[in-house]
Design a protein that fits this description.
The chain is mainly alpha-helical and about 110 residues long. It is built from six helices and two strands, in the order H-H-H-H-E-E-H-H. A two-stranded antiparallel sheet has the order 1-2.
Length: about 110
Amino acid sequence: MLTVAPDIEVLARFGRALADPIRCRILLALREAPAYPSDLADTLGVSRTRLSNHLTCLRDCGLVVTVPDGRRTRYELADARLGHALGDLRSAVVAVEKDKTCPDAESKGCC
């Protein structure tokens, strides 16, 4: 049974999904058009196993859905508004000092 998540949980899930560059690339690709995993793997230059793990994460976060298509499964954004949100995030101006990173940047791979 699907439930509507509270606002904070929704934002946390979205943040978790965007925390990985491959997941960001997947979301941006699906923003353009639905795709099959094999095509996404080829387009993004990642192994199918690695892509599958990231798609599972995005599905668990509620950001993508699967659509049966004969013997294949197609992936697409769970809601068209996610595409708009990704576009808004891409166009947001973020000012960051180049010589400053968060204290955990090296160990956590952030910033």
